[in-house]
Amino acid sequence: MELSPTRVQTERFNPFISLEANMRRRARFRGIKRTSKTLEKDILERSRKLAKDPGLLMPHCARECRRCGIRKSVDKMYKVAEKQDDPRKLNHAMNWGDHMVRAYAATVSLAEAGKVPYLASGKTPMGDVSYAVRGKVERDKLIGVQNYDHPELRLLAYWKIAKRDNLHLYSMEDYLFCSPDGPRPPEQYVEEVIALLPYDLDEEGRCPHKDAVERLRIRWKSADISIEICPDCAVDVNSMHILASRIAANDPVDDFEVDVPFELRGDGFDLESEVKVDTDLAQRYRRGELTDAAFIREHACERLKRIRASGKEIYILGDVCLGQDRSSFLSRLRGGEAEIEALTGFLSTHPMAIVSRSDHAANLLADLWPEHRDALLSQVASPETLQKLAQNSRDLTPAQAIAEAKRAELSKRITARLPNYTDMGPVAAHADRLAKAFLTEGKDSVVRHAEKIKASDHKLRSISYAFMAAVGKGESRSWQFTREERDFGEYLAPFAKKLLEEEGDGYHDALQLLLQASGSGEMLKRN
Where are the domains of the chain? Predict the structure, then answer.
């Protein structure tokens, strides 16, 4: 069967209202208005056709039923049609007896009158509908009969009958089909309603993303077809209700099943109970309370909670399941050294189910942060360091907080191995600051700290260039310095490099040599 998708006609059906409420509830009506010539012409044309052929209201039948309520009503309509030129009998027919027959008599009376002077306006799930009020007739039946050629509106006339006689009525563009033996949609009906879905589906009913890990799957049992939509394609409509939007039955969606398959690549793991769609959630979707997109989102959240609460050690990265292979999981993560260190230490002492949407360590940290913030921070910093950081609260992301804690801890350890000074001169303070930046944060930090100093003193600028050259960053920043500053900086670079390699007394001696070489005349005073 070839499925030809098109845009959903949202003006004809509201997918956010439950299906039975959509189709069976009584329409709301607002006042009387004069009839436009075009609308009058259309109503009279339909009235004349019904007057000639009441059989237009008879569905095509899956089989002949011995006691068909609709057939009984249509037979009575033929008798009305035979006497439609008798005003008294026509008036009696539209005020007494079977409401379906009343609706027919009221409609054909328009053809006899040859005009529709006034119309009532009814607000239905398919939009505002104008109809001619005649006789004592149930309004939904009157609207349905007067719009017998409209695939949605015609069902208003048949809803009570379908529920009373346990029928499944399928309304198509050009006819109505009745199945008395449960769901049995004609092929034409299947093609027409699938074409209402706002998705680009192939011949198998699947969206273009066939390799998606998860997808909404609606199985239409009697039609033997499934509609599959991935999260990227899913929009704010309820596809099950669109597929059932032209069905009148006790339960129009009784022929449909819904689930969300979750198929990972890699090593399998027993997650059957965790990925199963919750019954209450499925019922909310069946009632039309959730759209396709919302249903997938809510199930994904519930599934994630169940997997994480399962107590199983399992690692899922994107669409790949790595089973219990923690080292393989960690090796695939991308991120800074501090981020990886924090996650490695944390997972070694907290085996759990990990589901990460990407291979970015920062994303995983953000997922774990609300419940495991302190445990993650403790992997990269001591309690003393964390206490100091807490006193200087800053608005940081989890990844930034981990990096800052790691930097502070490393700075504390390195600083403990270096001498402390008092009353340092500007050259000594600048050199000491750049050296400690390199030792605690690396090469790039030397450039950052050097560029923060907007000094006009050529000696300080030469010191900056000396440290950049010592860590291999001088050439790329040479344009920022004068020739004299570069020449002097290159001369001082070996002294700066020596300083970066020392600690303790060696650091003190190296810094003193650098000051002497710079000609600053400054002396160091240790604490």
Answer: 19-175, 189-309, 314-413, 418-518
